Amino acid sequence: MGYRVEVRDAALNRVGEVDAWITLNLVVRYCQQGTWQIVMESGTAQSDLFQKGGGIAVYQEGVNDPILTGPVESFQHAWDSTLKNGPGYMTISGKCDNKWPYTRLAFLDPGKDVTQQWAADDTRAVSGPAGTLIYNELNSALGPAAITNRRLPSITMGDPDPIGPTKSDSLQWDVIGTKLESWTDTTTTGYRFVYDAASKAIVFKLFTPRDLSKTIRFSKELGNISAFTWTLTAPTVTRAIIACQGTGSSRYMYEQIDTATEAEWNLSIEQFTDRRDLPIKADPTTGAATKADLTTTDADFATAQAAVLTAASDALTSGAKNGAFQITPIDTDLVKFGRDYFVGDIVTVSVDGTEYVDLVQEVTITIDQGGQTRTIQPSIGQDDSSSTVPNIYTTVAAMRDRLRKLEARL
Predict the structure, then answer these.
(1) Rounded Cα–Cα distance for residues 104 and 107 (Å)
(2) CATH number of the domain located at residue range(s) 3-95 in this protein
(3) In contact, 383 and 324? CB cutoff 8 Å
(4) What is 298-322 written as a DSSP string?
């Protein structure tokens, strides 16, 4: 499947097409910054098309929308003596147009200049459908609703769309792109910035991930998997002990135990957390929680008790059993990236007799100088061994159990 590379200038005009590269590497990510890198012979008319402030758009044969667009961030000229009188190589690289949310901070008051933020509250509370929050935050930080010196004229925002679950959050100078990662999800809410040559604009697109799990499937039997890895890991904490104020018999101690995990792994592992900041001490006769002193109000006491439970839950979560699962599919005539599925689509994979449905988080593409695909490597599943997502753990545990039963029959 062929690829076409077009170049834009700082004014978002299409200035030419490139077809004489040596290698082209793309990483397309769901609701995050992807990357691109193109290596060309230096000093050619095509390499000179790339300018500071310009960018790139990569199109796949048979697909209308570009699979990646983004600005130039780096030029590197490399030459060594083995090239004799040759011009050397120019490597041009950058991120995709999802970069723009990562260039803005969540102001306390987006309607005011940074020098006027002193008049705002210490934090800014937001609440509403995820799609609305994403749209409003971007529009007020870099879109048409932003103050003049923060507005990016190249960005077209379109209309808001109240998709996704209701989110409530507190903002305080957060990097907006990072904050949006917590507002998007794998089933209801995603976004993308993509360059449109016809309108000379970078267009914001809010969307609901497509559920292709019934039609797009990957397995060893179908011949469209090049590798997979699954990992099960025992917990590092099963008993969280939280210590508040007081000394000796008056120090309040709270314990929370994950009994189900202890039974599953035949382990019991304690962890101590010092929370002397919480105004709770123990009744020396019963050990029950009481106010640390007479200045502690009922509201402060209730808040402190809730904080004890949260601290215990956090300790168990950070040390919980975990499962990780990653699969690397390959293109076949029946299922091809770009044509049949894209980053942000939900697909099905089958490994060791267990089916797993997940979103395509990332795709790495290497394209040779003829414009033909050398490798396409989508990443499906969790590749973070610290993942504690319950369904991931359950799925991986099922893979292990079915693999053991299969091996027992052989």
Answers:
(1) 9
(2) 2.30.300.10
(3) yes
(4) HHHHHHHHHHHHHHHHHHHHHT--E
